[in-house]
């Protein structure tokens, strides 16, 4: 089994603590804003910090949880997304599914589609951005990460991205790829931006933040959603 998937299972208490913290934070959060949801690659993206530093005229709530697979986000949909009643959602979920050889992409996509359907039912006018998965770099990986990256390859990531793009088109949402600045000439995650071959350093996230903001601050594109409240 991939080390990443194993870690995801043994850190269940950590996930529960984060959910409880988010539940508390949601009570004072302003509804109708931007929410980011997903697993560690979303949780580690300091969008709230970057937006505040740049004086961006938007409010962003990051509700990513490291180790989450699609089924776990589905179970925690209220806390991570629905309770905040966002007008705009950025979602990056599924990379931990891709790290588990026992989870086929087809099952991951069924869960992903259910996440979107349940969100649509609760928030019919929401604008959703399905984010492309970032690449990995096996050659720059720490030794303990390499078994995982033999399962979660860039070829597998690219195949999954094609399915996510199809899902976005089928559901009437947006598929976006903001990761160009993270890729080297071979399409791998740049060595200087990765912690251990998979996760991204803050400097890497700074490189893609302007691209994120291009979408976060754009005018509304669904009926009744002309602006972020």
Considering the chains and any ligands shown, give keywords for the structure.
229 residues, alpha/beta, Rossmann fold, 11 helices, 5 strands, 46% helix, disordered N terminus, disordered C terminus
How does this model look, in words?
With 229 residues, the protein is an alpha/beta fold. It has one domain (3-133, 143-177): SGNH hydrolase (Rossmann fold, 3-Layer(aba) Sandwich), CATH 3.40.50. The chain is 46% helix and 9% strand. It has eleven helices and five strands, in the order ααβααβααβααβααβα. The chain has helices spanning 3-10, 12-28, 40-43, 47-54, 70-75, 77-80, 95-98, 105-122, 146-149, 154-171, 202-216; strands spanning 34-38, 60-62, 88-92, 127-131, 174-176. The chain has a five-stranded parallel beta sheet. Helix 8 (105-122) packs parallel to helix 10. The longest helix is centred in the middle third of the chain and has 18 residues, at 105-122. The radius of gyration is 17 Å and the shape is globular. The N and C termini lie far apart (44 Å). The model is unreliable at 3-8 and 225-229 (pLDDT under 50).
């Amino acid at each position: 089994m991939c080390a990443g998937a194993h870690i995801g299972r043994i850190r269940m208490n950590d996930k529960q603590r984060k959910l409880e913290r988010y539940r508390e934070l949601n009570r004072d959060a302003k509804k109708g804003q931007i929410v980011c949801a997903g697993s560690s690659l979303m949780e580690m993206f300091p969008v709230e910090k970057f937006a505040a530093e740049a004086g961006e005229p938007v409010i962003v709530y990051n509700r990513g949880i490291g180790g989450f697979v699609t089924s776990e986000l589905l179970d925690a949909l209220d806390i991570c997304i629905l309770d905040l009643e966002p007008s705009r959602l950025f979602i990056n979920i599924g990379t931990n599914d891709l790290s588990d050889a026992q989870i086929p992409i087809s099952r991951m996509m069924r869960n992903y589609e259910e996440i979107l359907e349940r969100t649509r039912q609760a928030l019919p006018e929401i604008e959703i951005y399905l984010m492309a998965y970032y690449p990995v770099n096996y050659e720059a990986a720490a030794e303990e990460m390499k078994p995982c990256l033999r399962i979660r390859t860039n070829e597998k990531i690219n195949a999954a991205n094609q399915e996510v793009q199809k899902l976005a088109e089928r559901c009437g949402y947006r598929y976006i790829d903001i990761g160009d600045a993270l890729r080297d000439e071979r399409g791998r995650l740049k060595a200087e931006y990765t912690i251990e071959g998979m996760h991204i350093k803050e400097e890497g996230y700074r490189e893609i933040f302007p691209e994120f903001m291009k979408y976060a601050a754009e005018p509304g594109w669904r009926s009744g959603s002309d602006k972020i409240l």
